[in-house]
Design brief:
The complex is a heterodimer of chains A (221) and B (245).
Chain A (H helix, E strand, L loop, with lengths): L27 H14 L6 H9 L3 H6 L2 H15 L5 H6 L16 H10 L4 E2 L12 E4 L18 E11 L2 H4 L8 E9 H5 L7 E8 L3 E3 L2
Antiparallel strand pairs in A: 1-3, 2-3, 2-6, 3-4, 4-5
Chain B lengths: L10 H5 L38 H15 L5 H14 L2 H13 L1 H9 L1 H7 L9 E6 L4 E6 L8 H4 L4 H4 L1 H6 L4 H7 L9 E6 L4 E6 L11 H5 L4 H5 L12
Parallel strand pairs in B: 1-4, 2-3
Classes of the chains: A alpha+beta (221), B alpha/beta (245).
C-alpha cells in the first residue's frame, strides 16, 4: 500500500543526524517494546509480513511523528486486537480481564529465547518452477498500487533495470501478509540506474539495487 | 541546538517527554526515567516529568496484560533484551570483516555463501537468515538502507541505530547518497561508483569495507578494532591505524 512507510525519494525531512555513541535503547520502555514484540510474534498468530503491514497502515501523519518503537507498539496493539489475544476493554483499562486464548505456539519460555533468535525464520523455499529471468536480463517492474502489502517501493515501479542476482525462491510477502499463504516466488536483485529512477539531475555514479519477486517483473526485451 | 527530526530522530518523540514550555526540545539523552516515572522523585532536572512518555505507559500496560494472561513470560523478555544488549552487536560483524581481510579462503567462502561463512563465527538467525556481502573497492562504494521499514542484519550489527530507521535516512539514501554521506562527514571521489542496496526482501547486506592502508602486519584481532559499525553499513569508513583508541 502507498503508506507513509514507503519513504524512498521523499524530501524535506532534513539531514541525517547520527548520535555519537548511541545506546541500543533510549529508555527502558524501548527494551520492553522490542521484547514484547518479539515474544508476541513467537506465538505464531501472525507473520512478519503481516506485522509490517500493521505498521504501514498507521495513518501517515501519525507514522511520521512516532519513534520507531512506538510504531512497533502501535502495530502490536492492532495485531493483538485483530487476532483476539487482547480485548479493547483490556487495552483501555490496562488489565487482564479474559482468559488466555489458544495460540499456535506456546508462549516463548526464557530457555527457548537463545535458540529461537539463533534460528530466525528463513524465507527461502524450494519450488518446482524454474526462474523466468536470467542474470543480465532487462526487466521492467509493474506499475501497481495495491491497497495491500507489497515490497515494491513506489520509486521502483514501472522502471527498467537489469537482473544482477538470483536469490532463489522466497516467501511472497504480498500474500503472506494477508493470510493467503507463502506462495514462494523467485526473487532477484535488480540494478536500476539512478538516471532511470530519478531522471534528469540524478547522480550519474549511482546504481540502486532493489530485491524484487518475480510477480513484480515483466520482461523488457 | 539541532533541529528536531521526525520519525525517531527527534529527542521529543524518542523519549516522548522533555518538551519544555518554550517548545524547544531537550537534547540530553541520558536521563532514563521510564522505570521510575511512577515514583515521586526529586531529581533536579529541568525537564518536565509530568509529560512522561505516553508510549512508555502503554508498553507497561501491555506487558502487564500479556503477562497476566500468560501470553508472555517476563523472564523471556529479559532474555531477549539481554541478548541484544550484550551478545549481539557490531563487534560480531567486525570479526567477519577482519577475518575476510586476513584469510583469502574465508573471503572466498563469504562471497560464495555469506550466511554460512558468518555462521562459522557463531553468528546467524533472526534478521540475518539470508546474508550477502557487498565489497567496496577503489572504484565502488556500497551503502545499505531499508526504505520501507528498518531491515538490518541484526546478527552481525545488532539492533539498528535510530538514524537508520529514521525518515531522513530512508528517504534520501536512494536518491542522494552523497548528500547522506556528507551528513556523516564522508566525501567520496566524484568518480566513485555508488551502489545503494534497498533491503526490500529478506536478503540482508553487510558492507565489506576496504582494508585500511598501513595495516599489513596487523593481526585479525587488531584489525577488528578498526571496523566501525557505520563502515559495515556504508555510511562510514574503517578507522585508520593512527585513530584507534
Amino acid at each position: 500500500m502507498n503508506g507513509a512507510q514507503d519513504l524512498g525519494g521523499m524530501m524535506g525531512f532534513g539531514p541525517v543526524i547520527p548520535e555519537k555513541d548511541e545506546p541500543y535503547f533510549h529508555g527502558d520502555w524501548e527494551k520492553r517494546a522490542l521484547a514484547i514484540t518479539l515474544a508476541c510474534g513467537a506465538l505464531g498468530q501472525w507473520t512478519l509480513d503481516e506485522s509490517r503491514h500493521a505498521r504501514e497502515t498507521i495513518p501517515p501523519a501519525l507514522y511520521l511523528s512516532k519513534t520507531y518503537y512506538d510504531i512497533w507498539i502501535t502495530a502490536l496493539e492492532k495485531l493483538l486486537l485483530h487476532h483476539g489475544l487482547v480485548t479493547p476493554d483490556e487495552l483501555q483499562k490496562g488489565e487482564a480481564l479474559t482468559a488466555r486464548p489458544a495460540t499456535r505456539n506456546p508462549p516463548l519460555a526464557a530457555e527457548r529465547v537463545a535458540g529461537a533468535l539463533a534460528k530466525g525464520s528463513p524465507t527461502e523455499r524450494n519450488i518446482a518452477t524454474a526462474p523466468r529471468f536470467a542474470i543480465g536480463d532487462r526487466v521492467t517492474t509493474k506499475v501497481m498500487h495495491p491497497t495491500t502489502h507489497t515490497r515494491l517501493p513506489r520509486y521502483a515501479r514501472g522502471k527498467t533495470g537489469v537482473v544482477t542476482f538470483r536469490h532463489g525462491a522466497h516467501v511472497f510477502p504480498d500474500t503472506h501478509a494477508h493470510d493467503l499463504g507463502e506462495q514462494p516466488a523467485h526473487c532477484y536483485g535488480i540494478a536500476f540506474s539512478a538516471r532511470d529512477l530519478w531522471g534528469e539531475g540524478a547522480d550519474p555514479t549511482l546504481t540502486v539495487m532493489v530485491d524484487c519477486w518475480e510477480p513484480y517483473l515483466e520482461s523488457a526485451a | 541546538m539541532r533541529p528536531p527530526q521526525v520519525n525517531g530522530q527527534g529527542p521529543v518523540e524518542k523519549r516522548g517527554r522533555a518538551v519544555h514550555a518554550s517548545g524547544m526540545t531537550h537534547q540530553t539523552h541520558d536521563h532514563d526515567h521510564d522505570e521510575h516515572h511512577h515514583h515521586d522523585h526529586d531529581h533536579e532536572h529541568d525537564h518536565d516529568h509530568s509529560e512522561l512518555s505516553e508510549v512508555a505507559l502503554r508498553v507497561r500496560a501491555l506487558e502487564t496484560i500479556l503477562t497476566r494472561k500468560g501470553l508472555v513470560d517476563p523472564a523471556a523478555l529479559d532474555a531477549i533484551v539481554e541478548t541484544y544488549e550484550t551478545k549481539i552487536g557490531p563487534r560480531n560483524g567486525a570479526r567477519v570483516i577482519a577475518r575476510a581481510w586476513t584469510d583469502p579462503a574465508y573471503l572466498a567462502r563469504l562471497r560464495e555463501n555469506a550466511t554460512a561463512a558468518i555462521a562459522e563465527l557463531g553468528c546467524g538467525g533472526r534478521q540475518g537468515e539470508h546474508m550477502q556481502i557487498v565489497e567496496n573497492t577503489t572504484e565502488k562504494h556500497n551503502m545499505v538502507v531499508c526504505t520501507l521499514c528498518s531491515c538490518y542484519p541484526w546478527p552481525v550489527l545488532g539492533l539498528p541505530p535510530v538514524w537508520y530507521k529514521s525518515a531522513p535516512y530512508r528517504s534520501r539514501a536512494v536518491i542522494d547518497p552523497r548528500g547522506v554521506l556528507k551528513d556523516f562527514g564522508v566525501t567520496l571521489p566524484e568518480t566513485m561508483q555508488i551502489r545503494v542496496w534497498d533491503s526490500t526482501a529478506e536478503m540482508r547486506y553487510l558492507v565489506l569495507p576496504m582494508r585500511p592502508a598501513g595495516t599489513d602486519s596487523w593481526s585479525e584481532e587488531q584489525l577488528a578494532h578498526l571496523v566501525t559499525r557505520d563502515s559495515m553499513i556504508g555510511t562510514g569508513q574503517p578507522l585508520t591505524p593512527g585513530a584507534t583508541r
